[in-house]
Amino acid sequence: MAQAASFSSIEIPAAARAWAITLVALIPALWLFWHGQLYILVTLAAFLLLQGLCMSRPWLGICVTLAYLFLLGDIRRIFGILLGFPKLDPLLLVGPAVSALLGIPLLLRFRLNDSISKVIFALMVIMTLEIFNPRQGGIVVGLSGALFYLIPLLWFWIGRRYGTDALLSTVLYKVVFPLSLLAAILGLCQAYIGFLPWESAWIVAVSDHYHALNLGGGFIRSFGFSVNGTEYADLLLAGSTFTLSAFFAGRRIYSLFFPIIATALFLASSRTTIVKLLFAVAASWALSSKGGKGFAVRLPLGFAVGIGILAFALSQTSGGRQSEHSAAGYSTQHQLQGLSHPLDSRYSTASMHSQMFLTGIVEGFTNPIGKGIGTPTIGSAKFSSGPSREDDSDINSSEVDIGDAFLSMGFIGGFLYLTTYFLVLRRAIAFGRTASKQLGLPAIGLLAAMGGSWIALGQYGIAPLIWFVIGTISRPRPGEIPAIKRSSMAQRAVPSSSGLDIYGDRVYPLAYELSND
Asked: 511: domain range?
């Protein structure tokens, strides 16, 4: 008996277990390699790496997964030039798969004890039902829409569970900012020098159906290492907002990088992002005073000053003759014309986008059950059972997430999404007032900058980032927990071995989260 007990108590060394798991994983890998399924092999390897990080060290897995989503464009292009460009790229499914495996278990066991969680849960229920809406053209279209609607919302629950102040700081300062700076440098090189070999090959591969790449005049717009030009511009917008928000928070060094990122943002040829930048910077500045006092007055004042500065700058430059013999010159001329004549349909599409937004709202009432969450996404063009619509310009979207919410989910889903906006913005202001300025100002700046794009077409990295930030700031702050619970629950607070508290970087958020598991 003693011998049997001692035999059963023998532990297999960690190195031996690792080798065993590696050998087991090599069997399907070798089968895929032998049969030439290299793209699937790369996809599985990326998934297993990210999932392993998320399971072993969630805070590290979250950071690496977000970085992967932002770098996904060039990752696909590099493997595409080596292995060919597939029509349906499985690498696009890695991020959603990791998000689902990390977020769904949290959602299933989380107690809905606050207004934001209740509204977002109700919104996810409606989104799930809209997957089966026959008006969008089939279940495959609905499932593809879920990648852009349901998957980003899972990051809200991930943020609620793992989003400590320390982790949010890491995401903003060590993931978003460096990537936005690198994207700006690469985008400037694309505008002034040209594209890298794998980027040029990708342009040729998608030129027949991805017409949004065409800047005009035979030039191609910059896209950095992002999946598309829209996410590239939004990443630069996030980086530009961050640098000035950090400046208002006392970290002056970051403002030195603003000219680089802002120049790349201007040349990204997106006029909406320029206006959003002014509003986001005004929001950060408005909360930079002690305790956020006078926010309601400082916000419109700051925005008005920003518009004035922009108008003055345009008056000094728009009269000059701009060269259109390069992508940078053509983009500059395009921006100057549109910003200088925002109401002139010859130069600006502002009136057209406003009409599209209003049409999306009206659609929510004329079609009370909505058209399905796949309608405003690229799934409607790729998988619709109707006439083939390979052109990305044919996507039925209002190009604003609120309008798309009414369009895809009817007026009930639209009002729920509006309610979410109201609750989140109110919470963001409270977070900006109670958290440290180095954290609160960039967070509220990011949410303000991405207003209208929290859930948007083609946002593989930005949307998960936004909802992770929303989940993080919605966590209770120390002063919001009843004093009776603090003393009794603090005894159960055990910090993680990584040095980052899984539930909160202070004992009170940790105690609160433990009471909800």
From this structure: 483-517
